[in-house]
UniProtKB/TrEMBL annotation:
The chain crosses the membrane at residues 12-37, 43-65, 77-95, 101-124, 168-188, 209-230, 242-262, 274-291, 297-319, 331-355, 361-379. This is MFS transporter. It holds the Pfam family MFS_1. The keyword Transmembrane applies. Keywords: Membrane, Transmembrane, Transmembrane helix. It comes from the Bacteria. Signal peptide: none annotated. InterPro entries: MFS, MFS_trans_sf.
């Protein structure tokens, strides 16, 4: 009922769906770029270079675009970045056999990824009904889980009906459509950040925020380790559908967890709930070290997922509270970047461990990442608890058209 009331609020469904569609290209790119290049005859070395160029450019570009949004507003940044990102994907689609065009296209598409995630998150305080902010962030977390389920499915459908190159065109169109829906909405058009200081560090001048963002690297590390671990597991155990089935169970557990969490109010402080969810991640990933038979493994996939999205929901609220005035969008963009960096490091670490030891040792990587998060949150708990209240994001933006 909490979610239904939220979805009935002005602009909520429109902005949520628009942002969701516009974020699909980010979940598709990891598949579309390699598939299109392999179809064009590229070797795996160049395929990996192009995919890495996209990922690195996206990680670097996200906080920079977030800072521009805080200075110039959402529409002035979302529209041109959507056009440039689409141009990058089109460059790859039109010249997949030209290495220079592919690399330029990958860097352009990655660095100009429209910052829809941070833009939506700074709008929630303005469009969510009073007392429903945490439910709004929970809904956002569940939508994020569905992005990474639907993205590969859209790629699969596009390839089956047309071709990998056509999937790049679909990707470009989805990005343009999603941004058009969000950027044309009144809350997005009218949103302006608070006046900020000229400090070049932006949100990173808040020590408490840096502590919180650092903790999210550990969560990303755990997720990245899991992405590779399940591939190794599926090679040694018969799992219907293989590794994708295990990851889908993990996503389903995360979706179920956040729907339960966001459907009601919970006692205690945000910092306390964050510690609880981080502890749940430690337990879940710790049990993964056992690498049990598939039936039990399926249960562990659900368990580890159940704590992830609620953990992110608490983090979203705290980021909004801890970010210095005028830097909220950039703060959320840093969250995206550092989480992605942790994921990349976790995947690389597990790959290295699997090359030199058995999977049980590799599974410890996920536990280590969750422990890092729990430790940092425990050490910084007092600062999170005493965080100042989040400033509203312009009352005018909340008014229905």
């Amino acid at each position: 009922m909490s979610f239904l009331a939220l979805l009935r609020s002005p602009f909520v469904t429109r902005l949520l769906l628009g942002s969701w569609v516009g974020r699909l290209p980010s979940a598709m790119a990891a598949l579309t770029i390699p598939l299109a290049l392999r179809e064009a005859g590229s070797g795996y070395g160049f395929v990996g270079a192009a995919a890495s160029a996209y990922a690195i450019a996206a990680a670097v570009g996200s906080p920079l675009l977030g800072r521009l949004v805080d200075r110039w507003g959402q529409t002035r940044i979302l529209v041109p970045t959507a056009l440039l990102a689409a141009a990058g994907f089109l460059a790859i689609a039109l010249a997949p056999r030209e290495p220079a065009a592919v690399l330029v296209g990958a860097v352009l598409a990655g660095s100009m990824t429209p910052p829809l995630e941070p833009c939506l998150r700074v709008l929630w305080p303005a469009i969510a009904p009073e007392g429903k902010l945490e439910s709004a962030y929970a809904l956002d977390s569940s939508a994020q889980e569905l992005v990474f389920v639907a993205g590969p499915l859209v790629v699969t459908g596009s390839v089956a009906i047309w071709s990998p190159t056509a999937a790049l065109y679909v990707q470009a169109l989805l990005g343009l459509f999603g941004v058009a829906v969000v950027a044309s909405a009144r809350p997005s058009r009218e949103w302006r950040a608070e006046t900020r200081s000229g400090d070049w560090l932006g949100p990173l001048r808040s020590g408490r925020l840096v502590t919180l963002l650092s903790a999210m690297i550990g969560v990303g590390f755990a997720i990245g380790s899991l992405n590779v671990l399940v591939v190794s597991y599926a090679e040694h155990w018969h799992v219907p559908g293989g590794a994708p089935t295990l990851l889908a169970l993990n996503a389903f557990g995360s979706l179920a967890g956040v729907l339960v969490y966001g459907s009601r109010s919970w006692p205690g402080t945000l910092a306390g709930r964050g510690l609880l969810f981080a502890g749940g991640l430690v337990v879940g990933y710790g049990l993964l070290v056992l690498l049990p038979p598939p039936g039990w493994m399926a249960g562990l996939m659900l368990l580890t997922g159940a704590f992830l999205a609620p953990m992110l929901t608490v983090t979203f609220v705290l980021v909004g509270e801890l970010a210095p005035p005028g830097t909220t969008t950039e703060a959320f963009a840093w969250l995206v970047t550092l989480f992605a960096a942790g994921t990349s490091l976790g995947s690389a670490a597990v790959g290295t461990v699997l090359a030199h030891a058995d999977a049980h040792w590799a599974a410890l990587c996920g536990t280590a990442g969750a422990l890092v998060t729990l430790t940092i949150l425990a050490l910084g708990r007092r600062g999170f608890t005493t965080a100042p209240a989040a400033a509203p994001a312009t009352a005018e933006a909340a008014a229905p058209r």
